[in-house]
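Two proteins follow. First one:
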Amino acid sequence: MNLKTEEKLLRAYSKLIDAPEQAEKRFMRYAQTAMFICILIIFLLLSDNIDPIENKFYFALFAFISGYAFGLCWWFLQAGTQTVVILKHMSRDSIDKRLEEIAHNTGTRPN
């Protein structure tokens, strides 16, 4: 893995390790929003507002957006439930040590 990418990921996990419950709430809120958008668009598609025969492009576009929102919902739901579990098994000392190694290898200062 690229050192800059690894450093970026480790810094993100370092921020999450301080408050995993806030990250879980944020991801769950995103999941609920995505599911709301998905359901709203499905109701729009099933209503008489869009005729699938006359508006094929719009119908397909809204169906795609609904599916995309549904996929995002599941992704955020998974991220919200698994982040807390994973962070419980991660060590801040290990993250800080690796960040120092990366800083030493790249010649930058650790934050």
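Second one, unrelated to the first:
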Amino acid sequence: MVETKTKNMLYGAAVQLVPKSISQATFNYYNLVQKVPSEELRKNPWYAEPFGPALPPVDDWVCDVGIPAALLLAGAFTKKQTLKDMGLGAALTGAATFVHDVLSRMPAWLKPT
């Protein structure tokens, strides 16, 4: 049987991954199916790149960093171990996803300005 802490961490990972997946799928749908250019989609505040093309857009910051932070803060303020465990699970998946997003934009770092 799965231990409660592990189960809560898996719930936290799902809480982080589901919105991230929906956001990514929506962007890809508009870009690939509806043929909306990515430059046009980046004008939407949710998909905007406020720090330039070398760093992830707003949706990645919110889904990968914001959701785990909110869960960890909620766990700390309420002193509920369930929320702390969920925050840990969300942080593990969010950190891995965010690092992947940053590394996949590495060519933008190397372009001369």
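SUMMARY FIELD: The radius of gyration is 16 Å. The chain has five helices and no strands.
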